[in-house]
Write a structure and sequence with these properties.
Layout lengths: L3 E4 L5 H7 L4 E4 L9 H8 L4 E4 L7 H7 L5 E4 L9 H6 L3 E3 L6 H16 L2 H9 L20 E5 L3 H12 L3 E5 L6 H7 L2 E2 L2 H7 L2 E4 L13 H6 L5 E4 L8 H9 L5 E4 L10 H4 L4 E3 L8 H19 L15
Parallel strand pairs: 1-2, 1-3, 3-4, 4-5, 6-7, 6-9, 7-8, 9-10, 10-11, 11-12
The structure holds glyoxylic acid (2 copies).
One glyoxylic acid binds next to helix 7.
GO molecular function: glyoxylate reductase (NADPH) activity; hydroxypyruvate reductase [NAD(P)H] activity; NAD binding
Family: Belongs to the D-isomer specific 2-hydroxyacid dehydrogenase family.
Protein name: Glyoxylate reductase
Length: about 325
């Protein structure tokens, strides 16, 4: 009989169709919030595959609930902080993510927020929508130039590098900080210079976060980091919310310690720290980094391809834990 899989959220139609005829699909079609934990535990039981999204915590409890038949967890995201990968590896369960296919879309969204912040887009839009009377004036709603300024990229992986390439089009100088330093050739080809953490914060006019969430990067942007930034600086986070201390950010934005911030992800997603919602110098988006038709189709198809490969005993294309192959 066909292997059975749990799909925790409806994917784009093309990806749902790619599952047809290959496995028996148990699809969670409840309200558009995350699948409730007790349903997830119950419905994972006896499955050979799980196709998860970032709201599902894949831990020892879930793996126990799924049972020994489970072969693969295919995550529909590049980030995999929701998955206990070592625990999966220990049990011989493959784990995959969806890298590469969302790199350009996510870099575009980071730039959407960078531009929105420096040019006060949200504030201007809100003014128009409120039907506030206005007239063009030489000092009205001034933001900051980008050309000739410095972009500081935090995490220079695939998405960070795509953000760097765009920065050169805007005439910016680029510095970066990453636990893993690129080699000199890669740095000069990309047009970036490495900086110590404190130097990156102090020199950057725009700080954009593109690192994975790990115990080391949690609250990387805290009160001290915000104090180290220029008062004219902008912070953008399109990676994972818990890397930014939201209360500290709200305080820094209110007191003018930094100029503006743009967030696509939240510390307690989908909740937003209340103090941020009242500030004009923060632009807030509902985790749209990879949300284009083209990219979500590619992500869905890659997640399904990985899932089916794992079920068939083949090596999935974007496998995170080769050690689980045994
Ligand atoms: C989305 O946030 C992802 O990790 O793909
Ligand atoms: C991700 O983690 C990336 O930069 O692709």
């Amino acid at each position: 009989s066909e292997p059975s899989v749990l799909v925790t959220r409806t994917l784009v139609e093309e990806a749902m169709r790619a599952l047809d005829g290959h496995c028996e699909v148990d699809l969670y079609e409840g309200p558009p919030e995350a699948i409730p934990r007790e349903y997830l535990l119950r419905r994972a039981a006896g499955k050979q595959g799980l196709l998860t999204i970032l709201t599902e915590k894949v831990d020892a409890e879930l793996l126990d609930a799924a049972g020994p038949e489970l072969k693969i967890v295919a995550n529909h995201a590049v980030g995999f902080d929701n998955i206990d990968v070592p625990e999966c590896t220990k049990r011989g369960v493959l784990v995959t993510n969806t890298p590469d296919v969302l790199t350009e879309a996510t870099a575009d969204l980071a730039w959407t927020l960078i531009l929105a912040c420096v040019r006060r887009l949200g504030e201007g839009e809100r003014l128009m929508r409120a039907r506030t009377p206005w007239i063009w004036g030489p000092t009205m709603m001034m933001g900051h130039d980008l050309h000739g300024k410095t972009l500081g990229v935090v995490g220079c992986g695939r998405i960070g590098r795509a953000v760097v390439r765009r920065a050169h089009g805007f005439g910016m100088r680029v510095i970066y900080n990453d636990a893993i330093r690129l080699d000199a050739d890669a740095e000069s080809e990309l047009g970036v210079e490495w900086r110590e953490w404190g130097d990156l914060l102090g020199e950057s006019d725009v700080v954009s976060v593109h690192a994975p969430l790990t115990p080391q990067t949690r609250h990387l942007i805290n009160a001290d980091a915000l104090r180290a930034m220029k008062r004219s600086a902008v912070l953008v986070n399109t990676a994972r919310g818990p890397m930014v201390d939201e209360q500290a950010l709200a305080d820094a934005l209110r007191s003018g310690e930094i100029f503006a911030a743009g967030l696509d992800v939240y510390e307690r997603e989908p909740q937003v720290t209340e103090a941020l919602l009242d500030l004009d110098n923060v632009t807030l988006l509902p985790h749209l980094g990879s949300a284009t038709i083209e990219t979500r189709t590619a992500m869905g198809l890659l997640a399904v391809e990985n899932l089916l490969a794992g079920l068939n005993g083949e090596r999935p294309r974007t496998l995170l834990n080769p050690a689980a192959l045994g």
